[in-house]
Structures are given as C-alpha cells and as structure tokens.
Amino acid sequence: MAESFLFSFSTNLLIKLSSLVSKEQSLSSGTLEPDLRKLEATLSTIKAVLLDAEEKQAHNQEIRFWLWKLKYVLYDAEDVLDEFECEASRRQVEKPKVTSFFSNFQFKMSPKIKEIRKRLDEVEGSMSKFNLSERTDVRRVFSRSSFEDNVFGREGDKENIVNLLMQPGEMESFSVIPIVGIRGIGKRTLAKMVYNDERVDKNFELKMWVCASDEFEVSKLMKEVSTSANGKKLFMVLNDVGSESLVHWNDLREILMDCARGSKIVVTTNSNQVALTMGTVPAYVLKGLSHEDSMLLFVKRAFRDGVEKNYPNLIKIGDEIVKNCGGIPLVVKTLGSVLYQNTYKHEWMLIKDSQELRLLERGTGDILPTLKLCYDHLPCHLQRCFAYCSLFPKGYRFTSDYLVHYWMALGFLASSNETEELEDVGLRYLKELFSRCLFQDIEDNGYCFTFKMHDVVHDLATSVTPRECSRDSLAPKHIAQIVRHFSFVDIQHSEKVAELLKNLRATRTILFPSLQSKNVTQSFVSSCVSNSRYLRMLCLNGLRFEELPDSVSSVKHLRFLDLCSNSVIEELPESISKLYMLQTLRLCGCSGLKKLPSNMQNMINLKYLEITTKERRLPQNGIECLSSLRHLHLSDCHHLVTLPDKMQSLSSLNTLILQGCYSLISLPCSIKHLKRLEKLVIYNCPELNLKMDLQDKEEEHCLNVKVFMINGLLELVDLPQLILQGSAKTLEYMKIEACPSLKALPEWLANLTALQKLEFGSCPELSCLPNGMNKLTSLKELKIQNSPILSESCRQNWKKISHVKEIHLDSAIASSKLYNYLINE
Fold first, then answer.
1. Does residue 264 contact residue 256 with C-beta atoms inside 8 Å?
2. What is the per-residue pLDDT across 218-248, written as a single tens digit (0 to 9) for each?
3. Helix or strand or coil: residue 386?
4. Residue 62 lies in a domain
5. 3-state secondary structure at position 561
6. Do residues 26 and 87 both lie within one domain?
C-alpha cells in the first residue's frame, strides 16, 4: 500500500505543536520553545508539498521511500508530543510542588525533541531533489441534512419476489428463492423492500435477516433458528451468501426442515453456483436500472431538491455519466454524491472522462475502480477516518458514538478552534461520509446513529488501508513490527495472538470488534496490556477474564478502554484511576462488577462512560466530579437506588442514559443545573418517578434538552414538567413508549415550539393529544403505534395535526394532504 494520509497526519501534528508552543511561551523558562518553533517551521514546509508527493509516489519509488521515512518520524513525533499532554494531566491531578510547571520534565524531554528535529531536518533536506510543488487540499467538505436511501425502479422487482413468496408451499417445509446479480446492483435493497412489505408480515409468523458476508456464523444462526423458528412459518433473508458459505448449507438446511410448511428463504448472492446449489426455484436475475430511473437517482444525489433545473448544461453531462454506469445503483448514487452541490463544469467533465468510468463502460463488471473516484474526492482527513473502518468485519453495524471516539482516541480528529468539542468534529466527519454514500442502512436512534458499510465499499476501504493496519492476520514478526493497528475477528489461537503482541511496542490499537463471550487467560490479557507503551485504544469487548492487571496504569497514553460483556470480572484495579488521558471507559455488561474504583475523579479527561455494576450507590466524590464527562450510560445496574446528589458538577454532560436500573426511584433535583444536557434517555426503569420537587417555585428552570426518550416506566402518570417545559425552546425529539399508566398529556405540551418529531408507542390508556397542537409549527413527524385509543382520537380530530407533514398511526402511514383529500371526498 502506498504511503497516504500524511497530509492529514501533519496537519493534526501542527495543531498540537502550535498549542504546545503557546504553553511553552507562557512559562518562565520556555527552554523548549526555540526547538519547538523550528520543528513547527520544518513540518510546515514539508506539509506544503505532501499532496504532490502522495500523488507522484505511484510512479516514483524514491518518493515513496521518502514518504515512508517521514511517516515514522511523524509517528515518533506524535508520541513525544503526547508525552507533554500526559505530563500535564498527571500534574493537574497529583499537583507536585515544583517552582516551574515543566522544569524537570523539560530537561527530560529536550533530547527527544532535538532528536525528532534532527530526523525531520534530514527528511526536509532530501526533499528538494524531487521538485515537488506546494499544494493545498481543495477537495470540498459538505454534508446533507438528511440521509434517506432513495430507491428508484425496483417496485416491479419487489412485486415479482413478493408474488413468489405468496405461492403455496412445496412438498418440503421451505423453498429457497435466489436473487442473483453483480455487486452494487441492489440485491440487498430489493430484499429489504420485500422484508418490510406488509404482506410478508401478515403471511409469515416469524421473520429473520441474516448477513452472511465474511462470516456465516452458522452455529449462532442454527441455535436461533432451532429455538425460535421450530414449527413456525418462517421468512428468512440470507444476504450476500458467497461460495465459501456453501459448506454450512447442509447443516442449516437440516434445521430449517423443522419449520412449518410454506416457509420461504430469500438468498442474495453474486454467485450463480450458490443460486444453483441453494435454490429450489429458478434464480431471479436482478438487472440494472433503466436509464430513466438511473437519472432520477443521480439527480437526487447530485442536487438539492429542485435546483437541477437551473443547470441544464450539467444535466447533459450527468446524462453521459449515467449512461456509463451500467444501471448499477451503488455507482450511480456514489458518483452523484461526489458532485453534490458542485456547479463547476470542468469537474463534472473530469468524472465523465475518467479512466475508471471507461473501464466500467467496457463491461468489466468491477465497480471498485469507479467507487475509488469517490474516495479520491474525499478531503485527506476523511480518507484517513474512512480507511480505518476496514479494521471491522463485513456486515458490522457501527455506532456513531463509538466510531467517533475511536477516531478521537487515535488523534484523527483535530480543530484549530479551541472551543469546538472533538466529539462534534467527529460527528461532522461522519455526516460528510454519510453524504457520500459510503455507509448504508443509516438509522437515527435519537441519541446516536447506527449504520453499515456495503461489502464492496468495505473492499474499497481495505484497498486503501495503509500497511500499518492489520485485520485477523498473524503476520511474521518482522512485518508485524510496522503494524500500528491490530484487529482480530477470530482468536481461536489466542496463544499465537498473545505471542504476536508481546514484543510490539509501537502498537496503537488492539481491537476485538465482534467476538461473542470468549474466555481468555490472564496471560493473554497481560500481553495486550503490558507491552504496548504507546497504546491508545484497547477494546476487549466480549472477552471474559477475571482480573485486569495492575500494570494497566503503565499504559499512560491510553484513551479508549472497552471491557464490555465481561460477566466474570468482579472489580477493577485501583491503578486504573491513573489513566489520566483516558477518554472512553466502557463497562456495559460487566454484570459481576461489585464496585467501581474509588478514585475515578482522577480521570480528568474522561468523556464517555458506560457502567454496569452491582452497587446500590455509586462511590462518593467519584463520577459526579468528572467535569469533562459528556456521556454517561448506566446499564442494567439492577441494585442502584439513587444517582449522585451533586450532579451539577457534571458541567459538560451532554447525554444521560439510564437503562435497566430496576431499583432506581427518582432523579436528583441537581439535574436542573445540567445546562449542557441535550439527550435524556430512560429505558426499563419501572420504579422511576420523574416528578421532581421544583423547590424554589420562582426560580426559572431553563434547560436545553433536545432529545427526550422514555420506555418502560410502568408507574409514570405525568410527563416531567421540570425537564420538558424547561426545555420548551430546544426540545426537538420526544419518544414515549411502554408507559401503561400514562392516561393524559399536559396542556403545556403545546409550548414545546421546537419539537420536530413526536412518537408514542404502547401507551394503551393514552386518550388524546392536548389542545393547541397547531402551535407546534415545527412538528414534521408524528408516530403512534400500539396505542389504539390515541390513534383513533387523532383520526377523529384530524385538524389538530393536519399541519404535520408525515403521520404514522398504528401501522398506517398517512400524508396529511392525502388524508384531507379522502375525508373531503
């Protein structure tokens, strides 16, 4: 893999250097300032030509070797600069008595800075012979306000498949309908349309969707089928089945024989051999979109609604581009996204005349080179973040919060604006990648996004991933030494993984992204912890072990620690509180955890915290002292009876999630002081009373909550006035679900003038919406499910909600204009 991402890498380093120079300048001694300034100047000079060098390296091996040397200087420079951040945090906590903040530390670091300077000067000295030009990254940054996945031209195909599903069962219990087509043609999209069709819901007792790409997970699937599908009429989609999965088919077939007669399996595949082997009926061959439908999709992705009519010259060029796309929806919408809001004719012509598109026009069937056009048009900082996603397996469902914190832990996110939170930077990056159709199945859960990568887009990410990333590879030691990021999907031979990691001191990432409850030895855990001095991210999610070694405190650069789903660990070492740089700590699913460390207040950089614990009360002077904390998630803390009283100290808290806290009775009144709280989510806390004492009745309680979601509050009879009415000008999304005691809504609900989306589900006693709903002029979507009385009330009093653009009433989706037309007729 050619050396890449150095422009983004150097940009982030310069931001760190600039900040450090400013700090040094403010110190009385400032002994390091001259060297740091020279380092900054040299790096700025090199950065100016990096884009030209990265482009020319493909045809110049000497430039490629020069970039390789530069990369390892930058890695070492980042580690040295990180030492300053670690020391600053340590001194903030331990407060040593020294006359100058960095006096002793400066003396220790001076030789390291000089060494980096010397190596970087050598790199700069050899730069002149390459005749490189200075360039800036002019690739555009944009993001859409919505990320709907538009589908055109597949209604006929959907009807054909649904008709096959409705046919009577054969002699065997089930029949298999293969959908065959080339990659990117829309097989998954078609299967999804069929899967969500109401006729399928009515005709089958059970539905299952299985992503068979990369790993078939046959044992997990067979267990699920045998326990839940036995004797039932089943509809299953096996998405993206490859020829390597055929070895498991006979085993799965045997279990499926126990399903009720008339069960149907839809298989999507690129392989005719798979279709012949698995199918019981002739394969449905999915063809490309018509030119007309392709143009509709292209225009939808390339222009904002209605703007295309102002650019007839671009539409003509777009028509030529679409003709060469072969009717492949993934290519059409990706190229349309590349050109979104771009009105420069010459850039459209570059796409039309590109070599990659010509290859596709010749019928090669390989869409990867064409998709790389999208990657090539990404700004450098997005290329780096996108490529990192290749460490996760195909079919993996990402969560926005976690992915953003991965990037943050590894230093991929940076902003010259000191007031901008890095989490917000990461979310902006993510939305830009959404806009370019590099992720699919995007679901907005209110407080986070979940999404997947199309398999061919995953192949694209893998093809551009640098050599320092390794997924599921037990590389020879001399090769592994250059790997910085390790991801292991399978650790059947954990002793070999442990041996590999034992001597790798430059590792930044150790990741186990999709393991399910795997027992490992203490020596294995120690090998992950003890030897990687510069480790930034350690994800042991799904691994079961009884103790985290004390030596974890020596990994002082660690930003992300994930111990989720470890049901056997009972306590954490107190030394974990010495991880002063830690930003993310995930302890969800640690159901055996008896107590938290007593000095968690020392984790002064902790921003994201998930906890499962057996404690009745959280330790005093612990979590409530974390002024940097932005996200707090208490999950399945069954014995927890109260939250900390002094929550007002959580001055940065943005998101609070309470889930499965069965004994929790009330929220502390101090929640009214959380002025930065934007998302409050409460699930399955049946005893929780949200009615809080306002105390000072004359005090103005102004909160800024934007998302409010509650589910499973069995005793709830009133909505919390303090939280909701106090957020009247900011609340955008409210979801009330499984609250059987809620019978009426307050009249002040109509004061929530910023509300855009309102949902009710499984509230059987709720009788009507309050008067004044017409005041909610920002309301765009109203959704009511499993609440028949409320749904009927809305139908009877349509004028209350006629201004809402989209209305869902107990499975019936209504457009207000259509409904008005029907009732007037």
1. no
2. 666 777 777 777 888 889 999 888 887 777 7
3. helix
4. yes
5. strand
6. yes
